[in-house]
Amino acid sequence: MPDTTICAVATPPGRGGIGVIRVSGPTTASLIETVVGPLPSARRASFRRFAGDDGVAIDEGLVLWFPGPHSFTGEDVAELHGHGGPVVMDRLLQRLLGLGAELASPGEFSQRAYSNGRIDLTRAEAIADLIEAGSESAARAAVRSLQGEFAQTVERLVRRLTDLRVHLEAGIDFADEPLEGLALDGVVQRIEAIAAEVAETRRAAGRGQRLQEGLTVVIAGRPNAGKSSLLNALAGRDAAIVTALAGTTRDVLDTYLHIDGLPLRVLDTAGLRQGGDVVEQEGVRRARQAMREADRILLVTDDTAPALAADDSEITDLQAELPASVPVTTVVNKIDLSGRTPGVANDGFAVSALTGDGMAALREHLRASLGEDDTEAVFIARRRHLQSLDAGAAAIDEALEAAHAGAGEELVAESLGEAQRALGEITGAVTPEDLLGRIFSTFCIGK
Ligand SMILES: Nc1nc2c(ncn2[C@@H]2O[C@H](COP(=O)(O)OP(=O)(O)OP(=O)(O)O)[C@@H](O)[C@H]2O)c(=O)[nH]1
Ligand SMILES: [K+]
Ligand SMILES: [Mg+2]
C-alpha cells in the first residue's frame, strides 16, 4: 500500500455550482479533521466549514468520509464538495497540500483501486471510457464493461483453460498408463469450445473498440488521383499535403474525424505505382499493409485520367491490389473537370474533392455503411484487449494443433498456459508493471 495521501480536484476545470476535491490515503482522516473539524459519520453527507491555515473559512460545503477498505480506492477516502470556482478549488487544494497531501497523478485513484483489488483493469478502463464516451452507444458499452460483464466473460474463459490444464497435467503425472489417446480425445473438443468462445468475445470486443476509437478507413488509389485532397475534404481542414506532383504522399497519414458523431480513423496513403525511389516503394508497401488492415477502403480514381498503357509505371490492375476481405467504396474524383453529375453512380460515388460536390452523399454512405448496430451486446474494449484476445486465440490454436497431431500433453498444456497468460492480461490477473503504468497514465487527474 502506498504511504502517501493524494488529492485532486475531481470535477472538470472551470466554474460550476459544485466542485469536488477527492482525497485518498493513510492520513486522510487527520487532514479532514484539521480542515473541517471532527470526522463526520461514514458515508453520510455533513455540512461543514472548510478552514484555511489561518482559521478563516476558505469555503463551506459537504464532506463525505469513506473509511477504507469500503471506498473507491480501498484506502481511507474523503470528498469535499465546495463551490466550483477555480480560485476556491485551488485554495482548498493548496490547503491539503500544505498539510502533507500530494497532488494525484493522472489515473492514480483508479490505479490504487486496482492495486487494492477494488476493481479489475477492464473496470478501471471502463471508467475512463465512460467519461470519454463520444456517443450514446459507446457510453452504453462502457457501462456494460463497468458492471464487469467483459471481465466475467474473460475470467470464465481463463477458468476453463485452467480446468483443462489441470486435467492434462494430471495425465502427465500418470504418463505410464496408456490413456494418452483417450485423454486427448475429449480435450480436442474442449479446446474447440473454448476457441469458439474466444472468437465470439473477440467479435464483441472488436465492435466495442470500434465504437470507442472509430473504424479505420483507408484512402487508396493511383498517384495524383486526389487521395490527399479527399482526406482534406472529409476532415474539413488541410491535414495532408496536396501538390500537382505525383508521389507527394509517401508515409501513411493518420487522421481522426467525426461524420455526424460517428468516429472514424482515416488513413491517407501513397499512390500505387511501380518503380519510384526507395522511399516511394516503402510508401507503397505501407499503403498495401494499411489496405489489408482497413475496415473499408475508399478507392479514389481520377475521372479525367487517360487509360493506362501496358508499360505504364502505374499499377495497371488496381482491382488486383485490393485485399479480398475488405469492403471497397469507389470514389470517382475530379468531376468538376470531367463534367459528370455528382452523387451515386453505377461505378461509385462521383465527387470533386476540390469543390466539395458530391461529398455529402459520400459522407452519408460512410455513415450508413460504417455506423454501429447497437442491438448486440458490446463490451467497450481497447486495442490492448484485442491484442490479448488475439494472442490467446493464437495460443489456443497451437494447443489444438498439438492435440490433433497427437503431441504429448505437456505441449498442449504449455500452449494453454500461454493462452491463459494472454487472457489474464486483460483483467490484470497477470500484468507486467510497465503495462500498468501505460494504462493509468492515459487517465485524467482526479480519476
Ligand atoms: N480539378 C480538380 N483537381 C483536383 C481534385 N482533387 C485533387 N485535385 C488536384 O490533383 C492533384 C493531386 O492531388 P492530391 O490530393 O495531391 O493527389 P494524391 O492522390 O494524394 O497524390 P499522391 O499523394 O501524389 O499520390 C493536385 O493538384 C490537386 O489539386 C478535384 O476534385 N478537382
Ligand atoms: K499529388
Ligand atoms: Mg497524396
UniProtKB/TrEMBL annotation:
Its cofactor is K(+). One of its GO terms (biological process) is tRNA methylation. Keywords: Cytoplasm, GTP-binding, Hydrolase, Magnesium, Metal-binding, Nucleotide-binding, Potassium, tRNA processing. PROSITE patterns: G_TRME (PS51709). Residues 214-371 form the TrmE-type G domain. The keyword Nucleotidyltransferase does not apply. One of its GO terms (cellular component) is cytosol. It is an enzyme of class 3 (hydrolase). NCBIfam families: mnmE_trmE_thdF (TIGR00450), PRK05291.1-3 (NF003661), small_GTP (TIGR00231). Exhibits a very high intrinsic GTPase hydrolysis rate. Involved in the addition of a carboxymethylaminomethyl (cmnm) group at the wobble position (U34) of certain tRNAs, forming tRNA-cmnm(5)s(2)U34. Homodimer. Heterotetramer of two MnmE and two MnmG subunits. This is tRNA modification GTPase MnmE. The gene is mnmE.
